Amino acid sequence: MNRRDEPLAAPPAAQVAQDIAEAVRPGRGVPGAKPGPRGATPQPDTQALRIVVNGREHGIASSPATRLSDYLRDELGLTGTKVGCHAGDCGACTVLLDGEAVCSCIVAVGQCAGREVVTVEGLAEAPPDSVEAALRRAFVDRGAAQCGICTPGMLVTAVDLLRRHSRPSVEQVLDGLGGVLCRCTGYRKIVEAVLAVAGTGGVDEVDDAPIAPIESTPRGAAVGARVPRFDARPKVDGTAHYGADRAPQDAHWLKVLRSPHASARFEYGDLDAFVDAHSGLAGVLTARDIPFNRFAIFPDLRDQPAIAEGRVRMRGEAVLVLVGERETVERLELADAPVRFVAQPPLESPDDALAPDAAALHESRPDNVLCRGRVARGDVDAAIAAAAVVIDGTMRTRHVEHAYIEPEAGYAEWSRADDGTERLTVFACTQTPYMDRDELASMFAIDPKQVRIVPSAVGGGFGGKLDLSVQPLLAAAARKFGRPARIVYTRPESMLATTKRHPARMRATIAADADGRMIAYRFDGDFDTGAYASWGPTVANRVPIHASGPYRIEHVRALTRAVYTNGSIGGAFRGFGVPQSTLLNEMLVDRLAERLGADPLEYRFEHALRAGDRTATGQLLRASAGLQACLAALRPAWREARSRAERFNAAAMQGGAPDADLASHAPLVADPGTTDPHRRYGQAKRRGVGLACMWYGIGNTVIANPSSMQAGLRADGRVVLYNGAVDIGQGTYTILPQILADALGVPLACIDQVCADTDLTLDAGKSSASRQTFVSGNAARLAGEDLRARLLARLGVAEPATLRLEGPIVSARDGTREARIDLRTLQPDARGDVLVGSGHFDPPTVPLDADGQGVPYATYGFAAQFAEVEVDLDLGTVRVLAMHAAHDVGRAINPTQVEGQVHGGIAQGLGLALMEEYVAGRTDNLHDYLIPTAGDIPPIRVHLIEDAEPLGPCGAKGVGEPALIATAPAILNAIHHATGVRMTEVPVTPDRLRTAIAEARS
Ligand code: FES
Ligand code: FES
Description:
Low-confidence stretches: 1-13, 26-46, 660-667
Bound molecules: FE2/S2 (inorganic) cluster
Radius of gyration: 28 Å
Strand content: 15-25%
Structural class: alpha+beta
Shape: globular
Largest sheet: 7 strands, mixed
Helix content: 25-40%
Number of helices: 27
């Protein structure tokens, strides 16, 4: 796929100026922060039932049975209260009811009559010396809000907690926050923020460098500073607008009717009669309402309809869309609609789909193989045949759900430009506005310039909001019925209809020579790509490159297939298949070290790739390959932890108590008294410590990967970064301004921002593949350098120079002289900029040949992590006691943000290892689909290794996906260390582990 930069759309100049004026955020702006549309004006206080919300009395016009969350959002316009599940599972909707934290989605507003409610907006009104204000400051300063969708619920819950316990223990905080789910942060910085307010100290061993206020970050010191997020304030105030928080008042509501069958033919009955029979229903959408009803990630693989055309290939596929008044569409169900299905036997697994007589899901792929991936170097079969040590292994993984707390939501509307051409505007949560624009243009047969994508604040993505979801349905409805259209997916719908991590079935062989040298790795993997292509090709191509791990191995062959089935669509999910293959690779490396009698860390250290080595694709690593430095950073704690676990187990096997000094020697590990209140160590508990390494190519695999940025200088001396790199919680709206400030040579506080909007910002590509810091960071750097060069040229000053912005007066000094210019004398362009710098970066890569030889990525992230676990041999339960993570990030542009990414990745890796398994129709809610809660995440020690990447902006690479990849294999290796059992399937649920332990004992 090669998506070229398109020139910006060309709306009228006056419109541009207005849009820019609205979009520019002084210092800490976010897109879409406009007044909420629904009920922003309170209803007249004439109702009999009354309620006090944030100190003001209101009537209740809604039915008394209305959920309190809906009343707050829809009737009062208080959209700071978020809805992640409508079922009491996620805690995003938490408010204070008469001072007590409650899930407002499961409280009827009628129950609140005469009572007092406080929402996150109410916390924002608290005086500066209050606990509420202190918590909001601490969340900002400590990086406790990433995507921010959980933040209102977390803050409200924390207020309740601190009112109950003014000086809570760590356990009390973990317990108190346990009802609010966060998918981004790994909770540690949230806990840290709460404890900081309570004055009871930190929880993790972190480099406790001071927070650097944006306003006082000096010139040239923005990169590397722990500045708060630019977009933190609206997230803690509840004013950031996510997809469900904004829509025109007159918008129709949509509801999607979905297939209950994984494979079926279907036909409609009399749709006109159906519509006529339901007042409030404006009409329905079918596939015929979308001119080209196909989309995909890769334009040459467009196989997915937005609405099915007589055949469904997966459970949850859209078959009919209802359009009309909210109450009507919400009341109607599939059983009410004239849709008749004829179910067919589904192909549930790659085995089914690859059977010789299997029906083809798509005519273009009669064998159901979407694509294959291959990397081959050396003669792997001969090397294995001649090896002194050969170890085979298998690994199986399941569907994993992104479980971002914000379900898909947004609105669309059509308008006409002055020349009469149609324009489509979509406001929705997305990781990839420019791809959305191009796909919608394709589907509605219009020019991309006729489409404007305005990303909402994004309440978590992790790859799941890269594919289109609500957008084509909204566009079709708004066009057909001539009114704006809006939708908010329900939680089950979000989980049922969107992509998942590919389930994988893998086998591999690792071999060593007589000296114990790793010499060969052979890998075969089938990845279940589900009903449609989505990111299947990326997974199939990325995995073979990484399959043999970050090690010096001469002979490698790695083969993959992405296989169509009638399962959930396998999409992008933090790592594109590499987390799956790393589970197998790191188990085999561990087993090899064990067979050779080597220490697992030292064996990996000896074989680690380093600068000057060639990878399995033949790529020469010229620099910034810091795996050995990562392992060296972990070494002291690793030795101590292994020794401690072995002493623990020795005592436990003799039926005695663990070492009395365990806790004092292990500040990160929980006191035994808290993990074993019933004193069962002597009978069943074992501890283990396991390590894993990883590497990860930063950015797209081989294909073009460009990003473009602009920096504009205003007549008042403010600098505007036009930043199209959507911040989905990973921090691009903070990191890129930091890079720009230093490249331009001005204080960070001079930077304003226009955030992603396809009319206002250039194409920065998608927020995925850990690419934005490296790729868009370079584009921001180049834009800053370009603007600086233009300014100095105007001033007639040569480098090295010092630049000063003092309001409209810019001055520069080059050592011998100083020049000044009044920016008000320059002619502004349509956006209001008097000077503009541009930056464009596309990482240099070389296409892979038939054997996968080439340069697939410009640079790689490296990491090592180790886990300390405790296993109950009788119950099969695993508790992770501590995680230690060392990541070579090239340069930490903002260490607080990088730590937050590592924490969040570890939390998701822990879920992958121990609890997360999506089963369509059974676990499509946040009650049955388990993700880690605050109490599941152990203390985490992060080591940031800065082996600078010469191509990176200030040396930086990326960390979003690397953060997760080593965690699950480290936990599995730790389970082996504790129990002697090698688990070959994740998640390692208690039943699976108990069975494996029983088999090993028998
Ligand atoms: S929205 Fe209320 S608990 Fe999830
Ligand atoms: S910051 Fe908690 S869910 Fe994103």
